[in-house]
């Protein structure tokens, strides 16, 4: 197991970060800002007028502009998760030895976009807001013990060790107490004005396009990007067209055969970058309803999934194949694979799958249809948003594998808003593809799939564990890994977790999902590159503010 990178109790020294200047403003104003609009594109369809940066499914989070209006405590490089974070709204964060307490020193000289001073009270309020509203507390459910302000610093106490979740605290978006403190229901608050500390402020909103303009009093200095616009497209194809024509210059979507489809259109300026980490995509299976309430069928389906074909045909090689039976991406996860699973690789084995089913009491009728132990034919629906071509193509291949078992599997696209706001959180699905959180260890990957601490009954809002898997031994092992202060304890816990993942197949990891983004340098340069992967290259995260600090108008 890897060693701890941040020593317990270490203080992260603040760094002086300002927006970069340039010698050519491309026709901009005296600040050096370009007159060119940087257009960010996302394939998420029309948006409702909800700017709430804390509420899952809001337009500001879906398209990503929440992250240039509101900012996080620290900047975390998800591509290198063990690197020290970069100070941002917090000048430093100090942890105690068992990671149950964080002391946050706020950055001085920061103002909200309405001119009010940013203080420690805003940080404490933003944490308390999540503690008081479980719907907004995705990262630390029932784990905040208390928050206070002492001598100008924020003290956050947790009920359990947060060794594996430090980056989640760093990434929390901070909102102003003087605005949000007057809100009756912060979950339903639409935050129309968007008063933030970030480099941009909201200008105009429509369901298809959102405009932002620079914050002239931004603490990091005036951005060189003179204006931002976030355009939303109905599907991956729509965004791909916009990127290849230059109508959008930054975004992330799945582009089949991206080298010929996208980069070849302008090899000098069009780029796609990808990074590693523990990000994967998972076929979440509804463990509470047929046919996936029977682990034998989950195991059997796993053995029919041709992950090489899924990666090549649905993922065009952009999403690397998962080979380990533990679901961990390689080589990132190699050091975390339990001894008993070292060298054990996934392979298609339809005969083995049928034997598992036979042993579990399944049969086949005269037509070859699979019949479960209750005498019912096995069928299920796989669903994901319409337009998400890589996911839907992967589901088609998975359905083909299931049919080799005699199961009737169909793929049904869904409206994106319905998938986000109804299908996923309430468990209104049988099988669906979804990503997991990244992190500096595999803990997030397994917790998001299997953690009983995130379990809620069907019909109630789930933040993770969408498949409703509930195994106390796994829940205890995840808690033990999270709270351990030594490698031996973590290794023992990981073995328990991986044994359950392999034996119960509560959800099926299909491929690795490195952070992928496309961008054009026709107007601006300074984006993350393969040679300088200083941040997750996508515009839909707290790193957007950091990336904008690096962008300068292209020399003409």
Automatic annotation (TrEMBL):
| Signal keyword on record | yes
Task: Point to the regions of Polar residues compositional bias.
Answer: 45-54
For this UniProt record, the keywords arranged alphabetically read as follows: Signal
- Signal peptide region: 1-20
Name the SUPFAM superfamilies for this protein. Answer: Periplasmic binding protein-like II
The record's region (Disordered) falls at 26-54
Provide ranges: composition bias, Low complexity.
26-35
Read off the Pfam families from this record. SBP_bac_5 (PF00496)
Statement: the UniProt record of this protein carries the keyword Isomerase? no
Q: Which residues form the Solute-binding protein family domain?
A: 85-450
This chain belongs to which protein, by name?
ABC transporter substrate-binding protein
Species per Swiss-Prot/TrEMBL record: Agromyces larvae
